[in-house]
Structure formats: structure tokens, C-alpha cells
């Protein structure tokens, strides 16, 4: 297959994309003429200037279709099939099921179910807690928070360290940095979040190997001209990636613009959905651990008003960024496709499966469709 006249995030000008054996083997302004391609390729597609991208990657998604990942058990494990299929049809190629703060028993049960599942779309697990600062716990239940030590980390991971891809922790809970070094030795990406850390503490954690920030601006001190805090340290560090929830509720569009400009638009930021279990379901009241959440216009809150997450898709953030004139469509697409891959050290484009998306824009309305129909699994 040869795709011609395509805009590709990260490339300048119109490109051609050569696909052989379902793998992307070349992207260049000119590979070969369509006439020549027709002799060696089964199909030539003219993108007519539309954007062509890899599928989305969601590094922070808490559940979907009524199932919260911390509630996984042998009775509902089959729902992972439905969730993977649901996300695939939304354009998501891979995701990290996110397990928020809960009991060690619940965490290990969920990790076991995911470890035993056979879903290539599941790239690993994101543990958001339980090593969080109580003052910045947000909707995380305080009774399950744990001290950040190597021993407690070993207790939480149990026999399932190999499937954990990202752990969110508050670095000030372990000034020595021993836990960060230990997690890095296991190949786990350390993301800072739910934290009161100063810029100095955050920079020390980055020097020790932390390389991500969980939902920038949320559950951390605000940027301040005398104490820039965790986020200030992150956006001035070229080796750190920050997750961003672009729903307009978690972060003001003005602050998103500041973040994007500080990060030069094309590095350091990736979109996440932070979607909760009612993703794919209508607004209403839903169970959430032992509590309930109220979902209104896609925003989920506890009954006391605490912001808990969203029920909006990853790509709704792409539409929002364009609607708010915060960046062009190509940049917004990159923030949800290539940037999260880079953040967890996955390859992009060349020699990757050609599960491509085609994006078109008329005015501010964005349409997305898959160029391939085969499901990843």
C-alpha cells in the first residue's frame, strides 16, 4: 500500500507512506510514482492533504463501559474484551489500565487478571498511587495511602512488577530517592503527581530518574513566581513528559496555552483521557469504589464536589485543542499518538504496524476514521 499526499505529524509538507506486510517501511516526500507503485503495491490511497497518523495511546484511563480497573475480578474479566474493542473503534491502539489508590488486595487481584489476559492493546498498567501525598490525594481514599518505601512498593507489586509500566508517586515522601532508583531498575517509568513537592524536590527526583508528570496542574501546587513547584521544574526539563487532561474542566484553556507554549508545542506534553468507568455510558450516578460519582456533561465528581475524572474520550481533547485555537490539528494529533509513545519509550512510525488513522477538518469540525479494519488482537 502507498499513501500519497498525506500530512503526517512530525513531518513537514506532504508525505508518502509506504506500507509492506502491514508495516510502515518508509515516509518521504516522494517514494515512487503512483504508476510504479501500482505494479508492486495492492493499493494506492490519495489522502488529499488529510492528516495520517498512528492510533491513539492513552496512558491514564481508569475504566470504561461500567468497569473500573481496580474492580477487576474473575467474574468480570471478560469485559476487558469489550473495552479493548470499544477503545479500538474510538481509534485507540493501546492503553495503560490505570489502577487508582485502593487496598493491596484489590491492586494485586487486578494485576493478576490483567497479567493473565491476552490483549496486545494493553501495554501495561499505570498504578496511580498508593504512594501519594495525603494533602493532594484528590479523590483517592486516604485510608489506602501508603508510605513510599522500597518495602511497601514490593508489597504492592507482589509478583506482577513486570506488567506495571508507570507508577505515580509523590517524591517528597521519599527524599532519598531510593524508591525511584528501585522502580527504574525494574523498568518502570516513574511519574510524579498528587504531590506537594517544591521545584527543588521535583528536580532531584528527575535527576534520580523520574521522567513523567501525572495530569499536569491537577493535584499539585500551582505555578508560582517564587516557587514554581513540580510543574515548573517539569516544563523546563527537556527529558520530562507531562500528561494533560484537555477537557476544559481539569485545566483552564488559558493554562493549557501557557503549558503548550512553555513546552514549545512539540515536546514534553501528551494527552490523557483520565476517563472513569462510565466512559461509553450516559451521564448519571455511578458507583466508584465504596462511593458514588455524579457524571454531568462528561465530567465526574464525588458528591462533595471533588473532581474525580471524565467520561470523555482521548480524542475529545484533540477536538478541544483545535476548537480553542491552542494548536493546529497536526500538533493535537501528535499529542495523543506519538507523544505518549515517546513518553513510555515506544517506537513510532517506521516498521510499526500500519494501523493508521485518517483525519480531516472542515472549519473546526474534525473527523477521524481508520484506514485499516483489522483489530490489533
UniProtKB/TrEMBL annotation:
Keywords for this protein: Carbohydrate metabolism, Hydrolase, Metal-binding
Biological process terms in GO annotation: N-acetylglucosamine catabolic process
Cofactors demanded by this protein: a divalent metal cation
EC number assigned by the record: 3.5.1.25
Binding locations of substrate: 139, 218-219, 226, 250, 307-309
Residues involved in Zn(2+) binding: 128, 194, 215
Cofactor note: Binds 1 divalent metal cation per subunit.
Record flagged with keyword Heme: no
GO function term, MF aspect, one: N-acetylglucosamine-6-phosphate deacetylase activity
Annotated catalytic residues: 274 (proton donor/acceptor)
Signal peptide boundaries: none
TM annotation in the entry: none
Enzyme class: hydrolase
Family: Belongs to the metallo-dependent hydrolases superfamily. NagA family.
NCBIfam families attached to this UniProt entry: nagA
Name recorded for this polypeptide: N-acetylglucosamine-6-phosphate deacetylase
Organism of derivation: Leptolyngbya boryana CZ1
